[in-house]
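Minutes, project check-in
Item: structure for the 700-residue chain
Input as provided by the requester:
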Amino acid sequence: MRRYIIGGMAVVMALTFISCGEKKYPEPMNVEEALDSFRVDDRFEVQVYASEPHVMDPTSMVFDEKGNVYVVEMPDYPFKPEEGPGRGKIKKLMDRDGDGRIDDSVVFADSITDATSILPWKEGLLVTAAPNIWYFRDTDGDDRADDKEKVFSGFFENNQEAQITNLRFNVDNWIYASNHGQAGEVHFNRDPDAEPLSMAGADFRFRLDRGEFEPETAPGQFGQTFDKWGNRFVTQNTRHIQQMVIPYRYLHRHSYLPTTNGMANINDHGLPMYQLTEAPYWRAERTKRRNKRYQEQDLDRVEYADDHFTGASGGTYYGADLFPKEYRDNIFTGEVAGNLVHRDQLVSSPDQVEYTAQRPENEQDREFLASVDPWFRPTNFTVGPDGALYLLDYYRQHIETPLSIPEDLKEDMDFLRGDDMGRIYRIVPKDQAPTLPLGELNNTTASNQYVEWLSHPNRWFRLNAQRMLLQKQDKSVLPAVEELFMENENAVTRLHALYVMEGMDALTLNIIREALNDASPGVREHALILSERFPEVLPEAITLSSDPSHKVVLQAALSLGEFESEAVTEPLADILQEHYRDHWIRLGVLSSDAGSSMALFETLQDETGFFGSWDEEKEQFLHDFSYVTAARNNGEDMAQLLEAVSGLPVDSRKMVAEGFSGGLAKSEADLPSDVEEQLQALAGDGDEELKNIISNIIES
């Protein structure tokens, strides 16, 4: 299965490789030949939706609320223009004859440097083009943007593979963007008085309806998607799917945590993939050289030229109803170096905080889609209002940045070969001919019609309806929205209705209480987030600290830490008592002041019997708690903690000492004399390892 080439194509491919002594790299295929090069899951077919000259070098595609199609073209990659405007474009694509294939296009905006993603917003488009996020709008109806506003500026711009990108509107009414954790001082140009935002180590999210913007858990690269509950997943080269488990705002509400990593690699099947193309000459040669160097240096390291993820891109959640049931709620990810599309099934259970991304049973030794054409570069996807999965093919001879390729190997490489080409394919189940519901979309303008969309089985309708209601702010529909929330049997519809009310400032205590008691754990999670604005519902929020869903318990740990009340100490201690083995829940508790206070420690010690038994996870909690306490450098708390743990087993005291060592190093403060005495007392039983740890703390 690993490699196969069929019929006359074998001759074409063979003649183009170095075996003929003339060319190291193959020539391109026309779009029909490229279509024949695909090997796809046998329940699906691939259709050509658009190709050159209507689309070239595509990186992002959206359908706006009317079904209009916009595509970003990025022909400058991998070279930025030394001066002057870039060659990037945003095109509006049109199917004039209604045959399901693009036959016309208009340049909506051009001369853009490093445009990578777009998002419909208020009759225009938000556009990421580092170092800026723009708002482009056509005000005179000629399909060209004549109103251009620089909304945000100051993002990192020196590496096209690590710039601001992936604009996504989520169910929580925030717009998210990947920043790959790159440094930058971001300015919100609509508010000159707003403080610039440091972006180092963070991704980005913002709300234009409220003028809010803030860092988000990072790093995401080229690929960001959300499931129907608003969980965030990102793509990053070798790590083709990661979940952002804890948002940035919780992990940075105090500065003393031993780790602020809020993301998890949820892939359970490692790096191997099943490509049908051979590694290109430059990659095979570079890999051979690197592995030789690793062996000479006696390093336990191996690099792979093929069959392992290196260029994962554009992970996209499928949330429509056209695909068979087992393909829904899956994430599809392109692999531009492997010329394939990988599929992950998201698996979860009530006692699991993070998802697990699994290979489907029928794809254990193959991919959902793979091509024998090495020019095939699946960079991104979108799900349309018809329920089809649209695949963007950048279509280039080479996709790697020249910075990572030895000079002698670059001599035979034209990195812009193919910058006049590009394709968009539509993936649909066999024997189904979906059509874009353009008549329905063009006739939908009234707010009550958007309310009806909130219960549509295709998430494209639900998210666009929510966005339009947020923008229109027509509060006459609120009774109908509240009725959806109170009475609709579909929990996802109730969630959208809840956030429509949030976006219209229509949340009430009664609505929040109803949401906290919702039958769906997904709704309860979001209710906890929203409850942070309502101190009156603290008793109801506390009850969810013992929820059967561990995801809800994690959110309870995070949200209870936002309440300024001593009443949260005991439920946070109860959460630890029950869930201390879960790394994420431990981190969630410790992330708040209340969850890392001596009051919580005393509750664990005196009321829950937490320290009556020991295991590795309890000792890890003790380490992290000690780290936070020492990093705060509050002498009274440190002395109290050291006295409290003086009677614990030696291994537990070692964890305390190691935590103190790390926390004190973080605080860079002098060790109070009474704390030094307590540390010396902690090592009093003669254990040499413990004595050495404490001696190093005192001497440093």
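Outcome recorded: Residues 650-667 form the longest helix (18 residues).
No further action items on this chain.
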